[in-house]
Design brief:
This protein has three domains: 220 residues, 3-Layer(bba) Sandwich (FAD/NAD(P)-binding domain); 91 residues, no CATH class; 86 residues, D-Amino Acid Oxidase, subunit A, domain 2 (D-Amino Acid Oxidase, Chain A, domain 2). The chain is built from eleven helices and 23 strands. A hairpin with a 4-residue loop joins strand 18 and strand 19. The strands form five sheets. Strands 5, 6, 7, 16, 17, 18, 19, 20 and 21 form a nine-stranded mixed sheet that branches. It is α+β, with helices and mostly antiparallel strands. It is 29% helix and 24% strand. The longest helix is centred in the first third of the chain and has 22 residues.
């Protein structure tokens, strides 16, 4: 348990991940200084007008399926009351994910083997899927009852508002610093960490949590050798969404609930259809591109929400879009926890008898932290930031504050940022 004076964390980045982390730590009684380079939360990857959250189902109920189910449930529990109260734009009454490869017999076999309750997920045949979605979908699919969509920026703001009134010794637990880009993190001789913008120190605390997607990796890469941590295995993936007014006469249809499959469609409260999204690696173009609109409209057509359009057809009037980048990991699971030493430090420590000889489990890996605090990360949420943010923040609070762990030990290990280092150490030092 940290000393009271050390129960202070600086969080860098106020997207969904950073706002969720701030809420989780404040609820544990910690002071938080949240720093964001923009003037308000959720201006980059979390800035879309809407996004989905839902569980997943696999033939075997393995790590990915269990982790995503726990994550979706955590988001649903928090967001549903806000949506029903009219505080948050969205819908939390279910999501349909089409599955053209599944047969009724296969689907029933999965459900029976995994013993998942019908009020969590059920299989719908094509006729039932068409009825519940209001779209002429081409196959049956899975209805996830604890799924839906929401406005991510609205969710981020509500997370911060939920803890703004919390105080300790007459001072608010949450402080925010807007419009400041952190360019470096530095450790003081006394063991504190500073978040700096050039020569200016923006905040000092015993603990730093990096929630700034690809910028997190850049900040860590600048640490000196005696503080170096294993590089974050993040890749920036470009995505463009499209949205346009629903024109029923032109053949566009409003889905009754979010529908996903090859792409996704959902109806926004202001009468627009949102569809997407593209996935492009090694693409730094920030513009909104016509070919990407066509791709998204084609996906919407396959889902039954838009008319078929030859590529030579002009784009609909008033179509708009947005481009952002997702920080993804090789195994498509987030990075949540204390940052591990890099391989050079581990090798040196082992040679000097200062580290465990066995480093084949994440729980044996030394971390860049001590009794007073350290460096933590919550990033790599990829295209599932809405689904992951709430559970990942609860898990972060467990790491930082010692609160109960919200998931089983194997799921905790599966999200541990040291997992990629362990794989390298146990497979001949070769990155996977």
């Amino acid at each position: 348990m940290a000393h009271e004076a050390d129960r202070h964390a600086v969080i860098i980045g106020a997207g969904l991940a950073g706002c969720a982390a701030a809420r989780a730590l404040c609820l544990e009684g910690w002071r938080v200084t949240l720093i964001e380079q923009h003037g308000m939360p959720a201006m980059e990857g979390s800035g879309n007008p809407g996004g989905m959250f839902h569980s997943v189902l696999h033939a075997t109920d393995g790590i990915h399926a269990r982790a995503h189910r726990a994550a979706a449930m955590a988001t649903w529990r928090l967001a549903k009351p806000w949506i029903e109260a009219g505080l948050l734009a969205g819908q939390a009454k279910g999501l349909l994910r089409l599955d053209a490869k599944a047969t009724p017999e296969l689907a029933q076999g999965w459900l029976e083997r995994q013993a998942l309750p019908a009020d969590h997920v059920e299989w719908l045949d094509q006729r039932q899927a068409q009825s519940i979605s209001g779209l002429p979908v081409g196959s049956g699919g899975w209805l996830f009852h604890q799924g839906g969509w929401l406005h991510p920026a609205g969710m981020a703001r509500l997370m911060l508002q939920a803890v703004q009134a919390l105080t300790k010794d007459g001072k608010p637990l949450l402080q925010t610093v807007w419009g400041q880009a952190v360019t470096a993190i530095r450790q003081t001789p006394h063991g504190d960490w500073q978040a700096c913008a050039g020569d200016i120190t923006l905040a000092t605390a015993s603990t730093v949590v990096l929630c700034s997607a690809m910028q997190s990796a850049a900040l860590l890469n600048r640490l000196p050798a005696d503080q170096a941590v294993h590089p974050l295995p993040l890749t920036a993936v470009r995505g463009q969404i499209s949205h346009l007014p629903l024109d029923l006469q032109a053949g566009f249809k409003a889905p009754a609930l979010p529908v996903a499959g090859s792409g996704y469609v959902l109806a926004l409260p202001d009468g627009r259809l949102l569809c997407g999204a593209t996935t492009q690696h090694h693409d730094e173009d920030a513009s909104v591109r016509a070919p990407d609109h066509r791709h998204n409209l084609n996906q919407a057509a396959r889902l039954g929400a838009a008319p078929e359009r030859p590529d030579s057809t002009s784009l609909p009037e008033r179509i708009e879009g947005r481009t952002a980048w997702r920080a993804t990991t090789p195994d498509r699971l987030p990075l949540v926890g204390a940052l591990p030493w890099n391989q050079a430090r581990l090798t040196s420590a082992q040679a000097n008898g200062q580290a465990a000889r066995r480093l084949d489990q994440v729980r044996m890996i030394p971390r860049q932290r001590g009794e007073r605090g350290g460096l933590y990360v919550l990033t790599g949420l990829g295209s599932r930031g809405i689904t992951w943010s709430c559970l990942a923040a609860e898990l972060l609070a467990h790491w930082v504050t010692g609160a109960p762990c919200p998931v089983e030990a194997d799921l905790r290990d599966a999200l541990d940022p040291a997992r990629f280092l362990v794989r390298e150490m146990t497979r001949g030092g070769h990155a996977q």
